[in-house]
Amino acid sequence: MPGRSPAGPSGLASSAGGFTLGVLALLDKAGDERLLSEALKAARERDAAEYEEQKRLYHQGRLRQKMARLLESVVRPSTKRLMVRGTPLKQARKVNPDSDGETGTFYSAKLGRNVEYESQLERRFFMLLECLDEVVTYQEQPYRVPYVLDGRPLTYYPDVVFILESGEAIVAELKPCLHMALHVNRCKWKGLQTFCEERGLGMLMTDDRGRTLETLKQTRVPSTFETALLKRLEQGPLRWRDIADLRMQDVPSHAPQAMVLRHDLVMRLEPFSIERKKQR
């Protein structure tokens, strides 16, 4: 971001600064210390306000770039349903304050109410939605989505839906990069795909660093590591120690997760394991 000069952070403050300095010079000649002090205070306040506005606009640009990259990874339905401004959104589940995550609330000026979150990852993403003018509205815990896990029918609640100025509605799942490829989350994602396709909604899985499920799939994995891991899987499930033994130089930290997604493997967390899908 451009540095702040004594007259302000940009040409806008500098152009007004010349007028201010002229007024101050006249006041100084008049010898009125009170007026001089008030004028100096007003000038500083104006410069500070202009600087904060420019900083806000600069930050908005950075946020727009981040959102633009995220939108490139949105999985869109075959038929998009546009929502008109003012479409009511409802919370399908209240956040449990006793859950394992770091829960809390903050006041949303955009929504005119408190917003609930279940993790700092959620809070940071919600603040991104809050700051961007192109996001018209959003709703946390918006839907009850059915999915199947190992043959069992279950339901879950995606983290948030947000609506853009264009009317496009996108359901976002917020997961740490390590968790995106987990078997349970991929089963939820499959259920969400059906849910969103039927309703014309886009869908996105991301962490708070701009990484997404789609970019994780595209992680560069050295062919030597990929071949070694797939060959080792022929002997049975891999534990974390097995992965560590296969590590080679220049292998990205998220290479195992990328391979899980590319080869449709099964990854579980507790205890950690990667295995091939069982044949039915």
Account of the protein in words:
- The chain is α+β, with helices and mostly antiparallel strands.
- It has helices at residues 11-30, 33-71, 120-131, 183-199, 213-217, 223-233, 240-246, 255-262; strands spanning 104-108, 113-117, 135-140, 145-149, 152-156, 160-164, 169-174, 202-206, 266-268, 273-275.
- Helix content is 42%, strand content 17%.
- Helix 1 (11-30) runs antiparallel to helix 2 (33-71).
- The chain is globular, with a radius of gyration of 26 Å.
Give a short synopsis of this structure.
The protein is built from eight helices and ten strands. It has a four-stranded mixed sheet with strand order 3-6-7-8, sandwiched between helices. It has a two-stranded antiparallel sheet with strand order 1-2.
Please supply descriptive tags for the structure shown above.
single chain, 280 residues, alpha+beta, two-stranded antiparallel sheet, disordered N terminus
Oligomer: single chain
Taking Cα atoms only, what radius of gyration do you get, to the nearest Å?
26 Å
Q: What structural class is derived from the secondary structure elements?
A: alpha+beta
DSSP helical segment count: 8
Mean pLDDT: 84
Write the layout of secondary structure elements.
Blueprint: H1 11-30, H2 33-71, E1 104-108, E2 113-117, H3 120-131, E3 135-140, E4 145-149, E5 152-156, E6 160-164, E7 169-174, H4 183-199, E8 202-206, H5 213-217, H6 223-233, H7 240-246, H8 255-262, E9 266-268, E10 273-275
Parallel strand pairs: 7-8
Antiparallel strand pairs: 1-2, 3-6, 4-5, 6-7, 9-10
